[in-house]
UniProtKB/TrEMBL annotation:
The vault ribonucleoprotein particle is a huge (400 A x 670 A) cage structure of 12.9 MDa. It consists of a dimer of half-vaults, with each half-vault comprising 39 identical major vault protein (MVP) chains, PARP4 and one or more vault RNAs (vRNAs). This is Major vault protein. It comes from Mytilus edulis. GO terms for cellular component: cytoplasm; nucleus; ribonucleoprotein complex. It comes from the Eukaryota. Its main location: cytoplasm. InterPro entries: MVP (IPR039059), MVP_rep_dom (IPR041139), MVP_rep_sf (IPR043023), Vault_2 (IPR041134), Vault_2_sf (IPR043179), Vault_N (IPR002499).
Length: 279
């Protein structure tokens, strides 16, 4: 007695597959033992011949990965991916190889990720979502932030364990400009909280994560012969710009004047009270 009407065989096209599930334990034509609940793919091109122990769950189609793109995959259960890497349930990873990618039986496509294009005037500010080793071989701690610049790579596809906080524009100072950076980073990229850093032009740089300007970009004080600026020390320091060309030890609260003609950039330990012109 026929259990169901005669149906045509399924023809599976190239770059597609049938996701199959065993409903009974059996051994297939390749002598591979299947256990009830197992899932696997029948990949095209080909004609699928059904078995009573197997049901078709769905048709899976390949996702096309274009240049500067990647697909983000997630493991539905423990599996071995197409690169032979063991994946645990819920784990996510990227596939960047250009071409058609057919997800495995226990893989699902989460998203298609486009690359960010970097220029000499723009950088990416990144944040780590967990401790991992990034694409450049650097171990990043959970919550750590850093910059990726064009000197590192021309394009960047964010890893599954990092996120893009924003795009940072380059800061350019002319020879008549300066700025003071608060909480500057050291040579290892660690913020030095409470410190200040004076940067004089002509130069270009990116503000690192955690850094900020005290008052933005400032113009150098250009003093004529009848002009001067009154200064006050905010902390102790050795003044190398003293009028008598001798180093002077300044203490917090000390006041003095710089007279023109001169170009003056106040150190981080000094504030300018006012600019005066002789009568």
């Amino acid at each position: 007695i026929l259990k169901q009407v005669v149906t045509p065989l399924k023809v599976v096209a190239a770059n597609s597959a049938l996701r199959l599930r065993a409903i009974l334990d059996f051994e297939d034509d390749d002598e591979e033992k299947r256990t009830a609940g197992d899932e696997w793919l029948f990949e095209g091109p080909g004609t699928y011949i059904p078995r009573k122990e197997v049901v078709i769950e769905e048709t899976v189609r390949a996702t096309v990965i274009r240049p500067n793109q990647a697909i983000r995959l997630r493991a539905r259960k423990e599996t071995i991916d197409r690169q032979g890497v063991a994946r645990v349930t819920g784990e996510e990873w990227l596939v960047k190889k250009t071409g058609a990618y057919l997800p495995g039986a226990y893989e699902e496509v989460v998203d298609v990720v486009n690359a960010y294009v970097l220029t000499d005037k723009k950088a990416l500010r990144m944040r780590s979502l967990r401790t991992f080793k990034d694409d450049f071989g650097v171990t990043r701690k959970n919550g750590e932030e850093w910059l990726i610049k064009m000197t590192d790579t021309e394009t960047h596809i964010p890893n599954v364990y990092e996120e893009v906080v924003g795009v940072v524009n380059i800061t350019t100072l002319t020879s008549r400009q300066y700025c003071i950076i608060l909480d500057p980073s050291d040579e290892h990229g660690r913020p030095q909280l409470g410190r200040k850093k004076l940067v004089k032009g002509e130069c270009s740089f990116f503000l690192l994560p955690g850094e900020r300007f005290e008052r933005g970009i400032q113009n150098v004080y250009v003093l004529g012969e009848d002009e001067g600026v009154i200064l006050r020390a905010t902390e102790s320091f050795k003044d190398t710009d003293a009028p008598d060309e001798k180093d002077v030890e300044r203490k917090p609260g000390d006041k003095w004047m710089i007279r023109g003609p001169a170009e003056y950039v106040p150190p981080v330990e000094v504030e300018v009270i006012m600019k005066r012109t002789a009568i």
